[in-house]
């Protein structure tokens, strides 16, 4: 069933267990309520009567989901819409997708997930969460044991008894290591009401994405809900299966029993699951019940081979018998079965009576929705669902319905005021995280918000400017192509400072005098302003650099960069070459000499990209150097410090276990085992890269009071940092370092801007 977003008619099962009485009504947009607020709690009967009185006003309205109205608090479930709605009632079934080496088995795993995603409808009563505000978002995760059993795909496999769940997901065959499934959803549009979502299980290489929107119509006896124009279903990608993509479309749902007072959700429609890469399609037919007959909630389906370029079958009866791979049958609220026939479409099948072979796909009867793990409210952002609705929730839980309605109205009015302000400025609102509702949208979570990577409090926001006049790299007259930082004292300009009067300039080095000046700048700075020295280092030459020279930039970007190597050179998560190692060792010697001869300002904090070429460069550069007291060699691996993300395999990092077992560095909290950012089909644009590097700098300054930092990274990442701090363009050669004096001014109450340029697809060469 399709989910709803703010402003839509929304019928949701109340949580099991629930923190408040279940309520039934329709979702709506933000305008003053049509029913007076009251502190008297409504019983179920009065709630239903109030609900019906509202619905009668919409008889004949083609889409009541688009109508703007609001409801009093006594009709609301004290749960944000974005928190309550998701497709992960049983996240272990999502994590188990793709385990089968058989393509039929993988489709069955997708179907097992499909039938568990709406468990809330099966186990609870319809209810009304809060409307979602524009820009509101919700994040959570589940750490689950993936104990979903394998699914038989042979027509000769022994039969499971019809009512015994030997193969059911409800059984636990063996314990395995827990895996994390993360979820993010954001309200991306208010008119029409649309939300976007992304699900990720990095350990298994599984992700899902999509838009949620619905349309609803009151027929006089029931409410029929269908997917909205933007709701094309759930898109699941299996990265470890050659990026197989499955599209799961939603059937129409119906809320009935309004006249009898016995509300129930039913489904009577056809939906589809398709995988163009494996050329497998499923048609699921939710059967319509008789008007007076007892509901059986029956679903039938067929899995078959199809032609993605000529997708012509939409009814089960039209599918040729020879193409059928499996039959689906059962009750979508209890047990669903499948059978594998003996047809030419089933590889290596033996003659057998398919009608007698029935396997249990999933048994829903013992299952309940799995609780989410959500960051504490004090660590959430201002527009994060629980924090955004906290006061309303508290009032409802305390049965202060009048106060809850007043608070709800205030939030709604606040949203309308913001909309008017944007209109007056001729400013279009942009989603912060899920801008394009694709895998890239989720990546923007890291590069803009940084809220999924860890549960740390939101970093403070800073404005950065380069303080010029101290380093040659700042000067327009310095040519980056010919500049040699090693022979130019890292670029430090030999000049006098106004702080020189306090020392004998003949007995101290230029670097020591610069250190005095930096200290004075911070001492004299206004509150909220800091001056920092950032050593930006590019890794030594990597094998990907050598391969790009070998094939040329155009051929590299168009083709070779998407491969892991050419049989001669291997460049996936590229290591440094012998030349790259020599460059790093030369910088090591330079640091040792400058520390001994000039007491150069040594970094107080060290950060490094998680890509191997940077890790190795940092290790060769700094290991064995005798740093000043109090400035230990303490590199921290930062996910956001990496190169532009996507397409190029050289920029796909290795797993956490490899990094920790190979290098003596600590990884930041929340660092994922598998690369959570890299995607094979899109490349991070410069605006997103800049936003990510700004977020990195904000995070570093928010959690460190130090003044001198070392950041070992990449050419593209260094270029982005230079743009962020307002420095002129100064491309670094491999193995090079440049110091930048930066002024950081704390910004109060300002949200970071969302990048406006999308990620880029692979060049069409």
UniProtKB/TrEMBL annotation:
Q: InterPro entries attached here?
A: His_Pase_superF_clade-1, His_PPase_superfam, OSBP_sf, Oxysterol-bd, Oxysterol-bd_CS
Q: Name one Pfam family in it.
A: His_Phos_1
Q: Respond yes or no to whether keyword Coiled coil is given for this record.
A: yes
Chain intervals with Low complexity compositional bias: 13-25
Compositional bias ranges of the Polar residues kind: 1-11, 153-175
In the record, what terms sit under GO molecular function?
sterol binding
UniProt keywords, alphabetically: Coiled coil
Q: Know the name of this protein?
A: Uncharacterized protein
Annotated source species:
Endocarpon pusillum (strain Z07020 / HMAS-L-300199) (Lichen-forming fungus)
């Amino acid at each position: 069933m399709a989910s709803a977003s703010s402003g839509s008619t929304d019928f949701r099962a109340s949580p099991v267990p629930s923190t408040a009485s279940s309520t039934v009504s329709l979702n709506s947009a933000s305008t003053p309520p049509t029913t007076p607020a009251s502190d008297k709690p409504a019983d179920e009967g009065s709630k239903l009567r109030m609900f019906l009185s509202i619905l009668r006003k919409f008889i004949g309205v083609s889409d009541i989901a688009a109508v703007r109205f609001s409801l009093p608090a006594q009709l609301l479930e004290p749960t944000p819409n974005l928190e309550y709605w998701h497709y992960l009632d049983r996240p272990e079934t999502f994590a188990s997708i793709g385990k089968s080496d058989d393509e039929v088995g993988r489709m069955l795993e997708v179907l097992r997930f499909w039938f568990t995603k709406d468990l809330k409808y099966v186990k609870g009563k319809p209810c009304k969460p809060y409307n979602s505000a524009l820009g509101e978002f919700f994040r959570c995760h589940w750490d689950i044991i993936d104990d979903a059993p394998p699914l038989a795909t042979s027509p000769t496999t022994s039969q499971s008894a019809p009512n015994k769940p030997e193969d059911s997901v409800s059984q636990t065959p063996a314990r395995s290591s827990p895996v994390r499934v993360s979820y993010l959803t954001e309200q991306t549009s208010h008119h029409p009401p649309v939300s976007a979502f992304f699900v990720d299980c990095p350990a298994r290489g599984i992700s899902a994405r999509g838009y949620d929107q619905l349309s609803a119509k009151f027929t006089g006896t029931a409410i029929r809900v269908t997917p909205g124009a933007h709701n094309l279903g759930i898109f699941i990608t299996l990265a470890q299966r050659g990026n197989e993509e499955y599209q799961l479309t939603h059937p129409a749902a119906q809320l009935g029993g309004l006249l009898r007072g016995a509300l129930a959700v039913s489904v009577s429609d056809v939906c589809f699951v398709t995988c163009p890469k494996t050329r497998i399609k499923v048609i699921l037919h939710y059967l319509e019940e008789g008007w007076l007959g007892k509901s059986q909630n029956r679903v039938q389906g067929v899995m078959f081979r199809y032609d993605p370029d000529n997708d012509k079958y939409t009814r089960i009866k039209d599918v040729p018998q020879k193409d059928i791979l499996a039959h689906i049958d059962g009750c979508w609220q209890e047990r669903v079965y499948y059978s594998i026939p003996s047809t030419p479409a089933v590889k290596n099948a033996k003659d057998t009576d398919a009608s007698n072979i029935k396997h249990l796909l999933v048994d829903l009867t013992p299952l309940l929705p799995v609780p989410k793990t959500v960051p504490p409210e004090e660590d959430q952002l201002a527009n994060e669902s629980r924090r955004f609705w906290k006061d309303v929730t508290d009032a409802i839980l305390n049965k202060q319905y009048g106060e809850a309605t007043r608070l709800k109205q205030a939030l709604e009015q606040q949203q309308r005021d913001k909309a008017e302000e944007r209109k007056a400025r001729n400013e279009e609102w942009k989603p912060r995280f899920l801008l394009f509702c694709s895998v890239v949208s989720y990546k923007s979570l890291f590069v803009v918000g940084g809220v999924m990577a860890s549960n740390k409090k939101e970093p403070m926001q800073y404005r950065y400017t380069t303080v010029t006049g101290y380093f040659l790299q700042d000067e327009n007259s310095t040519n980056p192509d010919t500049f040699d930082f090693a022979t130019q004292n890292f670029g430090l300009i030999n000049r006098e400072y106004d702080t020189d009067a306090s020392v004998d300039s003949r007995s101290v080095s230029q670097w020591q005098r610069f250190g005095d000046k930096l200290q004075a700048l911070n001492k004299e700075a206004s509150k909220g302003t800091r001056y920092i020295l950032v050593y930006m280092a590019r890794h030594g030459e990597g094998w990907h650099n050598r391969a790009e020279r070998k094939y040329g930039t155009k051929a590299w970007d168009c083709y070779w960069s998407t491969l892991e190597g050419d049989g001669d050179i291997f460049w996936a998560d590229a290591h440094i070459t012998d030349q790259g190692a020599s460059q790093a060792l030369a910088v090591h010697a330079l640091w040792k000499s400058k520390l001994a001869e000039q007491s150069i300002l040594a970094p107080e904090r060290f950060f490094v990209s998680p890509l191997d070429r940077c890790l190795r460069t940092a290790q060769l550069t700094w290991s064995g150097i005798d740093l000043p007291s109090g400035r230990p060699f303490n590199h921290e691996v930062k996910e956001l410090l990496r190169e532009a993300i996507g397409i190029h395999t050289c920029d796909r990092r290795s797993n956490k276990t490899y990094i920790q077992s190979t290098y003596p560095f600590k990884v930041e909290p929340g660092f994922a085992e598998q690369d959570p950012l890299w995607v094979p089909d899109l490349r991070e644009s410069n605006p997103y890269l800049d936003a990510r590097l700004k977020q990195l700098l904000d995070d570093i300054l928010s959690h460190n009071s130090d003044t001198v930092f070392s950041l070992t990274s990449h050419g593209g990442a260094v270029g982005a940092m230079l743009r962020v701090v307002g420095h002129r363009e100064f491309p670094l050669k491999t193995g090079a370092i440049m110091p930048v004096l930066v002024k950081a001014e704390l910004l109060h109450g300002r949200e970071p801007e969302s990048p406006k340029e999308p990620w880029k697809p692979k060049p069409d060469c």
